[in-house]
């Protein structure tokens, strides 16, 4: 069954923004790729900038939803929660790899839209990661580390394969679009969390005794 025209426009725009760049893509290009009349783009999104904003909203609302689902596990343990956050985000990005690549690249550009995103969605994302890390440090699950730098490292691990796709595929011969990637890479990041952030079991027992 053919997708509705709004979904077809979004898919076409994401593909073209990735291959030709936002500035190199015209409304006519998108209409032709989506096999719709250009008037449909005006109806749903007003113009190309409206389509861009819709891409940001679609990505970050779903991204935060995945983070919040995992954050609800915080009472089960900070490590469980943080690993679930990583797993959810990674799977979402793999399932929406074209949109992820485009949005992460656009976030490197200093623009009004990006500033608005950073003051809303990114602030909420930081809050969720910060709370999970703080809980882990309070309970003795996590080492007493700089939260800002741990978030920086975690964000880098989660974004690098999608920001540097050609390096990942051509140099490392890793394929982020393949089904196995999310499982494999999620396990690798879990090992990083265990080795870098988590307190070893014996050390954790000593901390809990002192508490």
Describe this entry's structure for a reader:
The chain is mainly α and 211 residues long. It has two domains: 1-46, Homeodomain-like (Arc Repressor Mutant, subunit A); 58-210, Tetracycline Repressor, domain 2 (Orthogonal Bundle). The protein contains eleven helices and no strands. It has helices at 5-20, 27-34, 38-45, 48-71, 78-95, 97-106, 112-139, 147-163, 165-171, 179-197, 201-210. Helix 5 packs antiparallel against helix 10. The chain is elongated. The model has no long low-confidence stretch (mean pLDDT 90).
Secondary-structure topology with pairs:
Blueprint (H helix, E strand, L loop, with lengths): L4 H16 L6 H8 L3 H8 L2 H24 L6 H18 L1 H10 L5 H28 L7 H17 L1 H7 L7 H19 L3 H10 L1
Quick structural overview:
By secondary structure, the chain is an all-alpha fold. The chain has helices spanning 5-20, 27-34, 38-45, 48-71, 78-95, 97-106, 112-139, 147-163, 165-171, 179-197, 201-210.
Report Rg.
Answer: 20 Å
Low-confidence stretches: none
Number of strands: 0
Tell me the structural class: mainly alpha
Roughly what fraction of the amino acids lie in strands? under 5%
Task: Enumerate how many helices there are, as a single number.
Answer: 11
Task: Give the N-to-C terminal Cα separation.
Answer: 60 Å
């Amino acid at each position: 069954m053919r997708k509705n025209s709004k979904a077809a426009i979004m898919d076409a725009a994401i593909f073209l923004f990735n291959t030709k760049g936002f500035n190199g893509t015209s409304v006519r290009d998108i209409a032709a790729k989506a096999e719709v009349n250009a008037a449909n783009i005006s109806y749903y999104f007003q113009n190309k900038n409206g389509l861009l904003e819709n891409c940001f909203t679609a990505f970050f609302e779903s991204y935060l939803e995945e983070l919040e689902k995992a954050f609800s596990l915080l009472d089960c343990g900070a490590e469980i929660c943080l690993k679930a956050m990583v797993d959810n985000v990674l799977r979402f990005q793999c399932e929406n790899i074209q949109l992820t690549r485009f949005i992460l690249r656009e976030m490197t550009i200093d623009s009004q839209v990006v500033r608005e995103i950073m003051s809303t969605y990114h602030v909420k994302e930081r809050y969720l990661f910060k709370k999970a890390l703080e809980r882990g440090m309070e309970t003795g699950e996590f080492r007493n580390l700089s939260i800002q730098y741990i978030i920086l490292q975690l964000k880098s691990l989660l974004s690098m394969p999608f920001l540097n796709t050609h390096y990942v595929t051509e140099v490392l011969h890793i394929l982020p679009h393949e089904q196995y990637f999310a499982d494999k890479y999620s396990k690798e990041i879990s090992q990083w969390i265990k080795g870098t952030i988590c307190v070893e079991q014996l050390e954790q027992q000593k901390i809990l005794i002192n508490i």
